Amino acid sequence: MAHGLAIDFARSHRPVSRLGAVILFAGAMIAGFSIVEYVDVSDQLDAAQLKRDSLKRKTVVASSAARSPEQQAVAERLIQGASRIGRELRLPWDLLLEEIEDAVDDSVALLSLEPDAHKRQLRLSGEAKTLADALAFVARLEETESLRRPHLATQESKLSDGVRVIGFTIVADWDHPS
Asked: Are the beta carbons of 153 and 173 closer than 8 angstroms?
């Protein structure tokens, strides 16, 4: 009795693994965060530009009238503040957020991002499965265009949802055009 060879060329699809679902969820969260931040920064930039334009108009009108030295100093400080805010909002936030998003993997959870455009620094806080994972994250940040000299500023072992993790803070110089 001859048996025929049965070949099935159609692959059966495996269900999505938990790790895959977690990575997908984390990626969606980071993408959503990036979009929200982009919209927020764009709105702030628009508001700052409107305020700057308003201050310029007020300055032109006020300059035609006699002003005291104190009034002139206040007006100059307001204009400088509005200009500084406008410059900071025009920084390359998209590139920075994209590079950080690319550096994050499933072994690292990024909890906060605190940029200081004036000091040209960035502080990242997060959790990693192990110290080696945190150090690998620092190594990936070293390869970005925007960040210089990222280093692990603090690290501590702690419990998070009943699991032992490494809490960390990374500080880096932010290389952006002025």
From this structure: no
Tell me what percent of the chain is helix, strand and coil, each rounded to the nearest 5. 50, 25, 25
155 and 109, same domain (yes or no): yes
Quickly list H helices, the chain.
18-64, 69-89, 93-103, 131-142
Which pLDDT band, with edges at 50, 70 and 90, does 83 fall under? confident
Amino acid in position 83:
S
Q: Taking a C-beta distance cutoff of 8 angstroms, is the pair 25, 62 a contact?
A: no
Note down the domain range covering 112. Answer: 105-174
Do residues 73 and 120 both lie within one domain? Answer: no
Structure pTM?
Answer: 0.52
Tokens 């700052």 found at: 48
